[in-house]
């Protein structure tokens, strides 16, 4: 199956978003329910500044959207299918080997 450039870019964008553990945790939290940044920062145990940077990355990747709610902003997955994709990806990775580290040549971690 030949993939076109736009499909490859979409997958690469998703991969970049998942490359950071905090962004993974954010996506999984938003998979459960939309949330306000203050609640996300508290539940993830990170500063609001750090959270803001990660949310901006996920927005730029097109994976989350900011929804104005009065004077506050709520974040949610851009599409419900992303939640299903995260579930499928977790199940697929768990079905393979869970005790393996992603390592490049010369012992570098994949990031």
The CATH homologous superfamily corresponds to Winged helix-like DNA-binding domain superfamily/Winged helix DNA-binding domain
Q: What's the arrangement of strands in the largest beta sheet?
A: 1-2
Count up the domains.
1
**What's the gyration radius in Å?**
15 Å
Task: Give the quaternary arrangement of the chains.
Answer: single chain
> What does the largest sheet look like?
2 strands, antiparallel
> Do you know the CATH topology?
Arc Repressor Mutant, subunit A
Say how many strands there are: 2
**Unreliable parts:** 105-109
Estimate the mean pLDDT confidence.
87
Task: Report the span from N to C terminus.
Answer: 27 Å
| CATH architecture level-2 label | Orthogonal Bundle
The proportion of strand residues reads 5-15%
Structure annotation, total helices:
5
CATH class category label = Mainly Alpha
Feature tags:
single chain; 111 residues; mainly alpha; Arc Repressor Mutant, subunit A; two-stranded antiparallel ribbon; 2 strands; 57% helix; globular; disordered C terminus
What does this protein look like?
The structure is a single chain. The protein is mostly helical. It has one domain (12-97): Orthogonal Bundle (Arc Repressor Mutant, subunit A), CATH 1.10.10. It has helices at 5-18, 21-32, 37-44, 48-60, 80-95, and strands at residues 64-69, 72-77. A two-stranded antiparallel ribbon has the order 1-2. A hairpin with a 2-residue loop joins strand 1 and strand 2 (72-77). Helix 2 (21-32) crosses helix 5 (80-95). The longest helix has 16 residues, at 80-95. The chain is globular. Residues 105-109 have low confidence and may be disordered.
């Amino acid at each position: 199956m030949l993939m076109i450039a736009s499909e490859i870019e979409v997958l690469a964008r998703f991969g970049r978003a998942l490359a950071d553990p905090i962004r993974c945790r954010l996506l999984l939290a938003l998979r459960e329910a939309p949330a306000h940044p203050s609640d996300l920062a508290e539940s993830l145990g990170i500063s609001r500044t750090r959270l803001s940077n990660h949310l901006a990355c996920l927005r730029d990747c097109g994976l989350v959207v900011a929804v104005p709610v009065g004077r506050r902003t709520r974040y949610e997955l851009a599409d419900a299918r992303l939640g299903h994709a995260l579930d499928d990806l977790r199940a697929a990775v768990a079905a393979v080997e869970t005790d393996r580290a992603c390592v490049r040549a010369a012992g570098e971690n994949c990031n």
